[in-house]
Specification:
CATH superfamily of the largest domain: MFS general substrate transporter like domains
CATH topology of the largest domain: Growth Hormone, Chain: A
Strand content: under 5%
Number of strands: 0
Distance between the termini: 18 Å
Number of helices: 17
Radius of gyration: 20 Å
CATH architecture of the largest domain: Up-down Bundle
Helix content: over 70%
Order of helices and strands: HHHHHHHHHHHHHHHHH
Structural class: mainly alpha
CATH class of the largest domain: Mainly Alpha
Length: 412
């Protein structure tokens, strides 16, 4: 582990700082949109803008990497993200924020692609799993820690926007000063959507449901928490628990899913999330301690959905097809993530704050029912060679190449 960290510490350090800023700014935008009196639908549009940019960046950034290299593109994207967050305090209007969030989404999407391709290039067949584990720990730990930075100042002021800008700018230093050689980059190959559906209909629908659910939870969660009058500290605690707590159960869930039909596990956790959503509809009547405990349990049901859906799809693929399939998987999630904040905002605009969990009940319930249907149409594959691997929900196809179950990379 230590030899691996010695070669990659600068990359992980810079990425950790970016995760801090990313964790703060997502919650800050949601809280500030409520403070400014934006409607639920306007807030949904702003959050959807981020996912529009994220999907756009994932598709286009590899082209720029081939032309000018990782270091220059990273510097440009980090600078753009640093500028974009400051623009929120200059142009305080939902339509302006929509376009600014597109800029942020493109920037952060490209940064993730660069980091993951760089780490993958530094890995060998013996260290790929270790690097992926460290990457996952850094992602969950620092995105979660970034939520608490919300308490350093009043979100109605410009201070926190400046702090995010400083963090994103500071993250440039270890990357630009690293002596690590930048990797070569190739454009990822994609399955067509039809090909992907034919390989695994349940994997396809699971990707859609994951995008619809996670974008609403992690993008719109701060809007919901603020709308039910949680304090600033309670909002940050809610978002930290929601975005990080489920990481603790990924390993035991993975252990079970490698031994019994993964569909049973995925259907079970999504029905569990649907059941909790019904209870959360009455969240205003729950004591705050019970509310947060239930949020932790909900995170345990919801967060592993991504890794389970990937592992289930991989059961029907050859090892050399996994990275290409993951690229298409990311596109499906990206499209659904654009729709998610808009859909949940309509539910909340029509029903009120409880519409947040009513929306999540329908998404998770529909996935569970489709899973039960698919179990009647297809049996579990025999002699599975794939295995469950805990994955961050924002991992790119470049990051999937660090997954030990993919086709082994050429060693140096």
């Amino acid at each position: 582990m230590f030899p691996v960290l010695q070669k990659t510490w600068a990359l992980f350090f810079g990425f950790a700082i970016i995760c801090l800023g990313h964790g703060l700014q997502g919650t800050l935008i949601g809280v500030r949109s409520v403070i400014e009196g934006f409607s639920f639908i306007s807030a949904g549009l702003i959050i959807a803008g981020y996912y529009v940019g994220y999907l756009t960046g994932a598709l286009t950034i590899p082209i720029f990497l081939q032309r000018v290299g990782h270091i220059r593109v990273f510097a440009a994207l980090a600078s753009l993200a640093s500028i974009a967050i400051l623009l929120h305090s200059v142009f305080v209007h939902p339509y302006s924020w929509f376009f600014i969030r597109i800029m942020t989404g493109i920037s952060l999407s490209g940064i993730y692609v660069i980091m993951e391709s760089w780490l993958n290039d530094r890995s060998t067949n013996q260290t790929r799993g270790q690097l992926l584990s460290i990457y996952m720990i850094v992602t969950f730990a620092f995105v979660g820690a970034g939520q608490f930075l919300l308490n350093l100042s009043d979100p109605a002021k410009v201070d926190l926007f400046i702090l995010v800008s400083v963090l994103l700018s500071f993250a440039l230093l270890p990357i630009l000063l690293t002596t690590t050689e930048q990797p070569n980059t190739t454009n990822p190959k994609y399955f067509s959507l039809r090909e992907f559906y034919n390989v695994s209909p349940f994997g396809f629908v699971s990707a859609l449901a994951t995008g619809l659910s996670h974008s609403a939870l992690f993008g719109y969660g701060a809007v919901y928490a603020t709308s039910i009058n949680l304090s600033l500290f309670q909002v940050s605690l809610f978002m930290t628990i929601l975005s990080s707590f489920g990481a603790l159960v990924q390993w035991p869930i993975g252990y079970l899913s490698d031994r019994i039909d993964r569909r049973v596990i995925l259907i079970g956790i999504t029905f569990g999330a649907a059941g909790l959503s019904l209870i959360f509809i009455f969240a205003s009547f729950l004591p705050i301690t019970l509310f947060l405990i239930m949020t932790a349990i909900f995170s345990c049901f919801c967060l592993p959905m991504y890794s389970l859906a990937v592992a289930h799809t991989n059961d029907f693929l050859q090892p050399n097809e996994i990275v290409s399939a993951s690229a298409t998987f990311s596109i499906i999630i990206g499209i659904a993530s654009i729709i998610g904040p808009l859909a949940v905002s309509i539910f909340m605009q029509v029903i009120g704050s409880s519409g947040f969990y009513i929306y999540l009940f329908f998404v998770h319930g529909a996935l569970g029912l489709f899973g039960l249907y698919r179990m009647t149409q297809r049996t579990k594959p025999r002699d599975l060679e794939s295995q469950y691997t805990p994955l961050p929900r924002n991992i790119s196809p470049a990051g999937m190449e660090m997954n030990p179950v993919t086709e082994p990379t050429d060693e140096e």
